[in-house]
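Hey Z.,

So I finally got round to the nicotinamide-adenine-dinucleotide thing we talked about over coffee. Here's the setup:
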Amino acid sequence: LACLETLGIHSLKQGDTFYSVLTGNTREMGQGHSFSAHSPIDGSGLSQFNNATPEQLSSVVGELQDAFKSLRTIPAPRRGELVRRIGEEARKYKEELAQVISLEAGKILPEALGEVQEWIDVCDYAVGQSRMLHGLSIVSERPGHRMMEQWQPLGPVAVITAFNFPMAVWSWNAMLGLVCGDPILLKPSEKAPLCALAMYQIAQNVIAEMPDIPKASVSVMIGDRDLGEAIASNPAFPLVSATGSTAMGKAVAQTVAARLGRSLLELGGNNAMIVSPTADLDLALRAIVFSAAGTAGQRCTTLRRLITHESVVDGLVERLVKSYASLSIGHPMEEGNLVGPLIDETSFGRMQAALNAAKEQGGEVVYGGERVIANVPAGGFYVKPAIVRIAHDAEIVQEETFAPILYVLTYTDFDEAIEIQNNVPQGLSSAVFTESMREAELFMSPAGSDCGIANVNIGTSGAEIGGAFGGEKETGGGRESGSDAWRNYMRRTTNTVNYGGDLPLAQGIVFE
Ligand code: NAD
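And the result:
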């Protein structure tokens, strides 16, 4: 665990237990029950924490509110400078940060490095944005008047994250939120708390050299669902950004809505790819394997449904099976391995249950699904990614099982393919492989994919930070990262200024 030492995280503990409340000013042990986080690589204990409690949240909220009072008045380009330096610090420790991701989330190192790169990229993006928090000037209908729109800092933002992108998701929210003038409280997944401490440490290294930046601008509380619920119900957070399962999102959305706060939700996906008879199948094959088996099927954008034209399905499945059989499965930090472990035994159990349900519902497992024991670290749950041929309307196909199961479905005409693609509760990512301009355009048109992401001749996973990321329906409707997602972290004011000597009323109303 040399990476923890290099990053300085090893010092964030008392005895064997890490601090659970970190605000830059304060370090406290959690006052709730203790828990250990395990590495999915071999099931070994990695870290020990006590849950931070809802009571501890109250004092943190006070610190965040104080931090907001200063941060909101610091010019945005200076806040950009903070983020620029955080990006530099993350560059310096890219290897070590990636190792922490691999240890906690089980990602293969190249993907973990990619995740840190995403953080670095979003820093660069946010620095540019810090000089472009533009409003509008609007013509007034009244003589001697001027109107404008301004974007103002919003307040402390809470970020609740999932285990599978422990750094990228925080960085999408935090780097933009900081530039927008909002202190950020992270409540990470209980399965990846060290990643949170690593990011905290990187940011605090920078803040230590920028005395005008309030320390609590980057804060962390480690805790479970109870802490998440306390955060969601606390009116000190005008925005709660929550990433995770749809069940979690529904709970958070209702709690935040009950106090008329805003929530930004990034929830489960059930992503599909349509493979048309005209598709470049070599290209499609590579995209399918990376999207479906990469990250051991544990991306929100993982390809779960392959909607293949009946004329090409048999040949494609045959090639897929060959490709799957050549995937090297094993220790995520060993070079050459492409598929690491599932996060834990529960996840393995869910995968097996889904495969059994698929069989009961008429599906045929044509490849994989079983646990891999040979040549992998004992104690980890490694699986052969599965390929299942099944009817598109089987119940299990409607669900997101967070494991590598690819359901192969068939279609006869393209409109039917789009209908199958849209006919699930989730709406995150989608793709079509086609050489037909008409099919590609139809897929992206109002009558096409109903997802937040609709790709042509690219797989469903691996989005770039420049676009707005997120999805519709049960995926929650949120958009993060690029495009105009920065507006989530600001409030809009409309200002009307009267520089004339009269007081004309709008809509020509006379009131005298
Ligand atoms: P999860 O829902 O179990 O946990 C996510 C986070 O929510 C954790 O921090 C957890 O403590 C917290 N939480 C759980 N219940 C809560 C509640 N009632 N109130 C407040 N907080 C609560 O998810 P997971 O297993 O860590 O992650 C996998 C899921 O996340 C998948 O469904 C995946 O698709 C989704 N995901 C979505 C995106 C996206 O951008 N759309 C990105 C990554 C992961």
